[in-house]
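[Meeting: bench + compute handoff]

Bench side (C.D.) handed over the final construct sequence. Compute side (W.E.) agreed to return the predicted structure before the next meeting so the bench team could plan truncations. Sequence as handed over:
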Amino acid sequence: MLLKSKKEEMIKGFEETIKGSESVVFVNFHGMKVSEETMLRRELRNSGVGYKIGRKTLIARALKGKAEGELPELSGEVAMAFSKDQTASAREVYNFQKAHKSPLVILGGIFQGKFIGGAGMMEIATIPSREVLLSKIAYLLKSPMQRLALAVNEVAKQK
Protein backbone atom coordinates (compact mmCIF):
# COMPACT_ATOMS: atom_id res chain seq x y z
CA MET A 1 0.00 0.00 0.00
CA LEU A 2 1.41 3.36 -1.04
CA LEU A 3 1.45 6.30 1.30
CA LYS A 4 -0.40 9.43 0.24
CA SER A 5 2.87 11.38 0.04
CA LYS A 6 4.38 8.75 -2.28
CA LYS A 7 1.29 8.86 -4.51
CA GLU A 8 1.47 12.66 -4.72
CA GLU A 9 5.16 12.41 -5.62
CA MET A 10 4.36 9.91 -8.40
CA ILE A 11 1.57 12.14 -9.75
CA LYS A 12 3.96 15.12 -9.84
CA GLY A 13 6.48 12.97 -11.70
CA PHE A 14 3.87 12.02 -14.30
CA GLU A 15 2.75 15.66 -14.64
CA GLU A 16 6.33 16.82 -15.27
CA THR A 17 6.80 14.05 -17.81
CA ILE A 18 3.63 15.03 -19.66
CA LYS A 19 4.49 18.75 -19.55
CA GLY A 20 7.97 18.16 -21.02
CA SER A 21 6.80 15.90 -23.85
CA GLU A 22 5.46 16.63 -27.32
CA SER A 23 3.60 13.34 -27.48
CA VAL A 24 2.59 10.65 -25.00
CA VAL A 25 1.41 7.14 -25.80
CA PHE A 26 -0.53 4.96 -23.35
CA VAL A 27 0.38 1.30 -23.66
CA ASN A 28 -1.14 -1.86 -22.20
CA PHE A 29 1.77 -4.23 -21.58
CA HIS A 30 -0.19 -7.10 -20.00
CA GLY A 31 1.33 -10.47 -20.89
CA MET A 32 4.86 -9.24 -21.63
CA LYS A 33 7.77 -11.13 -20.16
CA VAL A 34 10.36 -9.28 -18.10
CA SER A 35 13.00 -9.88 -20.79
CA GLU A 36 10.71 -8.34 -23.44
CA GLU A 37 10.02 -5.37 -21.15
CA THR A 38 13.75 -4.84 -20.66
CA MET A 39 14.33 -5.05 -24.41
CA LEU A 40 11.49 -2.55 -25.01
CA ARG A 41 12.95 -0.08 -22.50
CA ARG A 42 16.41 -0.38 -24.08
CA GLU A 43 15.13 0.17 -27.63
CA LEU A 44 12.97 3.11 -26.58
CA ARG A 45 15.86 4.70 -24.67
CA ASN A 46 18.16 4.34 -27.70
CA SER A 47 15.53 6.14 -29.80
CA GLY A 48 15.17 9.01 -27.33
CA VAL A 49 11.82 7.84 -25.98
CA GLY A 50 11.09 7.61 -22.25
CA TYR A 51 8.96 4.91 -20.66
CA LYS A 52 7.19 4.96 -17.29
CA ILE A 53 4.90 2.44 -15.66
CA GLY A 54 2.28 3.56 -13.19
CA ARG A 55 -1.08 2.90 -11.67
CA LYS A 56 -4.01 3.79 -13.89
CA THR A 57 -5.63 5.97 -11.24
CA LEU A 58 -2.46 7.96 -10.64
CA ILE A 59 -1.87 8.43 -14.37
CA ALA A 60 -5.50 9.52 -14.82
CA ARG A 61 -5.13 12.08 -12.00
CA ALA A 62 -1.93 13.42 -13.55
CA LEU A 63 -3.67 13.76 -16.93
CA LYS A 64 -6.63 15.82 -15.70
CA GLY A 65 -6.66 19.13 -17.55
CA LYS A 66 -3.46 18.41 -19.47
CA ALA A 67 -5.09 17.99 -22.88
CA GLU A 68 -8.33 18.68 -24.73
CA GLY A 69 -10.96 16.02 -25.24
CA GLU A 70 -11.78 12.87 -23.36
CA LEU A 71 -9.15 10.58 -21.87
CA PRO A 72 -9.09 7.20 -23.68
CA GLU A 73 -9.98 4.19 -21.56
CA LEU A 74 -6.88 2.89 -19.80
CA SER A 75 -7.43 -0.84 -19.41
CA GLY A 76 -5.04 -3.47 -18.14
CA GLU A 77 -1.52 -2.72 -17.00
CA VAL A 78 -0.68 0.78 -18.25
CA ALA A 79 2.59 2.48 -19.11
CA MET A 80 3.43 5.76 -20.83
CA ALA A 81 5.93 6.22 -23.65
CA PHE A 82 6.87 9.85 -24.18
CA SER A 83 9.27 11.94 -26.23
CA LYS A 84 10.08 15.45 -27.40
CA ASP A 85 9.51 14.31 -31.02
CA GLN A 86 5.83 14.32 -31.97
CA THR A 87 5.76 10.92 -33.64
CA ALA A 88 8.73 9.06 -32.15
CA SER A 89 7.02 7.57 -29.10
CA ALA A 90 4.11 6.08 -31.05
CA ARG A 91 6.36 4.96 -33.92
CA GLU A 92 8.90 3.22 -31.68
CA VAL A 93 6.25 1.39 -29.64
CA TYR A 94 4.55 0.30 -32.88
CA ASN A 95 7.87 -0.84 -34.41
CA PHE A 96 8.71 -2.87 -31.31
CA GLN A 97 5.25 -4.42 -31.28
CA LYS A 98 5.54 -5.35 -34.96
CA ALA A 99 9.15 -6.59 -34.87
CA HIS A 100 8.86 -8.73 -31.74
CA LYS A 101 5.25 -9.92 -32.10
CA SER A 102 4.71 -8.44 -28.66
CA PRO A 103 1.38 -8.35 -26.79
CA LEU A 104 1.74 -4.55 -26.45
CA VAL A 105 -1.47 -2.64 -27.20
CA ILE A 106 -1.55 1.09 -27.90
CA LEU A 107 -4.53 2.42 -25.93
CA GLY A 108 -4.29 6.05 -26.98
CA GLY A 109 -2.24 9.10 -26.22
CA ILE A 110 -1.76 12.83 -26.32
CA PHE A 111 -0.84 14.45 -29.63
CA GLN A 112 -0.70 18.21 -30.22
CA GLY A 113 -2.47 18.90 -26.93
CA LYS A 114 -5.42 16.55 -27.57
CA PHE A 115 -6.33 13.11 -26.30
CA ILE A 116 -6.43 10.62 -29.15
CA GLY A 117 -7.75 7.05 -29.13
CA GLY A 118 -5.82 3.92 -30.00
CA ALA A 119 -6.72 3.96 -33.70
CA GLY A 120 -5.57 7.56 -34.07
CA MET A 121 -2.27 6.80 -32.37
CA MET A 122 -1.77 3.81 -34.68
CA GLU A 123 -2.13 6.17 -37.67
CA ILE A 124 0.46 8.50 -36.14
CA ALA A 125 2.73 5.52 -35.46
CA THR A 126 2.83 4.61 -39.15
CA ILE A 127 4.06 8.06 -40.23
CA PRO A 128 7.69 7.67 -41.33
CA SER A 129 10.43 9.57 -39.53
CA ARG A 130 11.46 13.06 -40.64
CA GLU A 131 14.64 11.77 -42.32
CA VAL A 132 12.70 9.21 -44.36
CA LEU A 133 10.17 11.84 -45.46
CA LEU A 134 12.96 14.23 -46.48
CA SER A 135 14.67 11.52 -48.52
CA LYS A 136 11.37 10.75 -50.28
CA ILE A 137 10.94 14.43 -51.14
CA ALA A 138 14.52 14.59 -52.45
CA TYR A 139 13.86 11.53 -54.62
CA LEU A 140 10.65 13.06 -55.98
CA LEU A 141 12.50 16.27 -56.87
CA LYS A 142 15.42 14.39 -58.41
CA SER A 143 13.35 12.00 -60.51
CA PRO A 144 12.01 14.49 -63.13
CA MET A 145 15.44 16.06 -63.58
CA GLN A 146 16.99 12.65 -64.07
CA ARG A 147 14.38 11.70 -66.68
CA LEU A 148 14.94 14.99 -68.51
CA ALA A 149 18.69 14.40 -68.56
CA LEU A 150 18.16 10.89 -69.99
CA ALA A 151 15.79 12.23 -72.67
CA VAL A 152 18.25 14.97 -73.69
CA ASN A 153 21.05 12.39 -73.80
CA GLU A 154 18.99 10.09 -76.10
CA VAL A 155 18.20 13.03 -78.42
CA ALA A 156 21.88 13.91 -78.55
CA LYS A 157 22.80 10.30 -79.45
CA GLN A 158 20.36 10.27 -82.38
CA LYS A 159 21.86 13.42 -83.95
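W.E. noted at the follow-up: The mean pLDDT is 88. C.D. will use this when planning the next construct.
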